[in-house]
Amino acid sequence: MPFLEVNDLLVHYPVRGGIFNRKQRVVKAVDGVHLAIEQGQTYGLVGESGSGKTTTGRAIIGLSPITSGSVLFQGRDIARSGTRMPPAVRRDIQMIFQDPYSSLNPKKRVLDIVAEPLRNFEKLSAQEEKRRVRQLLEQVGLSAESIYKYPHEFSGGQRQRIGIARAIALKPKLIIADEPVSALDVSVQAQVLNFMKDIQKELQLTYLLISHDLGIIKHMCNFIGIMYKGRYVEQGTTADIFENPQHIYTKRLLSAIPDLDPSKREKLAKLRGAVNAEYEQFHGSYFDDEGLAHPLKAITKTHSAALP
Amino acid sequence: MNEELLRIDRLTTSFRIADDYYAAVDEVTLSVGTNEIVAIVGESGSGKSALAYSIMGLHTRARIEGSIYYKGQDIASLPLSKLNKLRGKEIGMIFQDPQSALNPLMTVGDQIEEVLLLHRPELARKERRRRVIELLTKVGIPRPEHATGLFPHELSGGMRQRVVIAIAVANEPKLLIADEPTTALDVTIQLQILDLIRKLKNESGAGIILITHDLGVVAEMADRVAVMYAGQIVEIADIYTLLAGARHPYTRSLLQSIPAAGEAQSRLHVIQGIVPSLQHLPREGCRFRSRIPWIDESAHEAEPKLHEVAPGHFVRCTCHSDFHFPVHKEDDRHHAIS
Amino acid sequence: MWKTVARRTVIMIPQIFLLSILVFLLAKAMPGDALTGLLDPSIDPAAIEAQRERLGLNNPWYVQYWDWITKAVQGDFGQSFRFKLPVAELIGQRMMNTIWLSLATLVLTYLIAIPLGIISGRYHDTWADRFITGYTYLGFAAPLFIFALLMLWVFGFHFGWFPTEGSVTPGTKPGTWAYAASKIYHILLPALSMALITTVTTVQLLRSEIIDTKQKDFITTARAKGASESRVYNRHILRNSMLPIAAFFGYEITGLIGGTVFIESIFSYPGMGELFLSSISLRDFSVVTALVLLYGAASILGALISDLILGIVDPRIRIK
In this protein, which residues make up the domain named ABC transmembrane type-1 (chain C) (predicted)? Predict the structure, then answer.
């Protein structure tokens, strides 16, 4: 049994209009996503803007309303519509947000920010709470004296660590990280990514990493799902995806990654030309009439793609 | 091969904070030739964008010292009325965020037309409209006639950036400044925009200054690269030398910290400490010193200068000559505290 | 476009319906009823009771409400006991005065706000800006009725430059130029008194919009195109900053209602506001309820106008 399993997840938003505000059409933000993550692994969800990757992440944690489908966390359905997520599960799943500048309340001290989940779930004395927050800050590499400071007194990387400290305060089992480093400079990015790997080992965390940056995904993940317009186009291990991409969309995405070797420019240009030509030529067969991907077909035990 | 188009000579751009001036760009000297792409790389706070804005004279409250020679004429000291004859005509600029770089209340057509109206008043309205459509076609916007009547919010991010580019190249500038032109875009769109910029350069032979933090973009585009740290250029070299034989500790650290798509999963290099804020920049000695504390103090120069280590390859400070990465790669989260 | 107008108008109906219930219940909750002021206190209580029964005042509230509202939608708000006139006719006489006063105030408000806001925003952090913001703070702090009294005393009584009561000089013939001039002359001081205070919100709004727009990226784009500073201001900053001002227009109407109630009383200007206050003090309930309902409807309409204006001028939410 997988640690987290998402079955046929649909998140549809109605678009209203007309005189009586009737439902006119439906935006299919997420349209039939299946995924399974094993404990202690990092699963990467990749896609461009509008692919539904963020909505998928938010739906799993209950921040976006699910139209249909199930989310099984340790075998237990946590997303049945109409019911609230049980508190025990809410402790176990935490989220790290993209923008360390807007995800922390500027009027609150670090102590209050990090202690917030503790206050919601555990009754601690003020003394005990401070001790825990200090411990958490040290765990994320910030000095324990920072507890009385405000978010603006920290750099972007440090803020993201505060966000992580808050996320791990309740010793969660699964962390959904939505573009955790895309607002940060390269060197700071490295810091946060390394750190995420460290605490993963320490706390046996499972990650669902949402990102548009394939370099980061490749660096961090064991398993990757590629989304396009709310649907999966391909899924597999990191090696499956990077070494043996099957879908034309995946190929195009991979070929667009800038290469650090300037001597390969011409070779790359040719490769990209070829990939693009293939994409144009077979677009009709790889996508349906609405321009959406077909259902996934298994290629190997780990690898599947939305082949025609 | 290329004739010199722009020469920046000891340019210092300072901002007033409280009662003092702080230099965000500190004595930068750099030249750009025709048909050349010069990339300026750095992280936030390096001064790369401040440099771009200085060339265009876009800082409203800054003190500019030094000179910027465009075709031999110093444009840093030019009165605004004369500078306005160059901006948008001889020198075009592409901005980072296509979301906010366009006026939300004006149609795409009107915004492109404005730059034609400003510099080529002799064009009749009909000709201007024709030129707008020509430009939209050139930057790859489908159904250009229809697009002229659209407002920015009706276009996708990539399409909006094409409009920004159409504005920048409308009057066939000789120099194009692109400030993080693809940072806000998806990779496939990034590729298309970079291709477009390259194509426009090849057609017109313009010189391009490409400001970016993304070494991948640099590797794809640049002929020459200047790396900036804390307001100064710390290394300049041609692209091949810079990526294969970087010397400055900062450049080398930066290259080590990218999760490169080609590499196996391993730990990334972390540069210790943080980029100091403008008010707290070290003003004396090597500015990178505090971030490589394991290197002996004596390795640094008292007043670090750019040294030509190979023809066309300049490196600041002497600390590069025996720089090495720290040997034991322990858990790096604890020395990241400032 | 028309769909949205229609939809919004449809939504207005239940809003006004709820408002009318509220107004009616509040009027009921006030001490006394329609008879209290009409009758001589020496009349036999049994006769009063008979009268109450005849007028339906002993019916349950919803029956009374139904009677009232069905008549009201036909324009019959009952009789004013004070003036012995149908309420509708009474309000009709006053309404035009209030509309003229409101219009004059609106014009003056924008005549003051636009130049001051522009100067303050464009040259912010200069002495001119500090002077103007100083004035806006004064405007926020000064209560309208005290300021209006001061204006009335200084320019009306002390200098005698303006009339101190009424809406027109008695004896002038309607339809003549003299009549129109007299009307304007009577409106000027009350309108100016109100405008000087109410304009500060708009000055502040415009100032902050301009300061905000000045720092937008597309302004940098305009400069990079080689546009002169005056073009940058006129074409890009002002146009974009005026948008919220235009949208605020509808809400100004709501503000005017509150303002005219005070101003008309202070300047003894025969408008709806003056009628409203005096009717409250004399318990002329049929007039009060009708006016509250009218004011409420005007506020709702104001909000609708604001939304529609924004929908028309802002392409991002332009109603198709």
Answer: 95-306
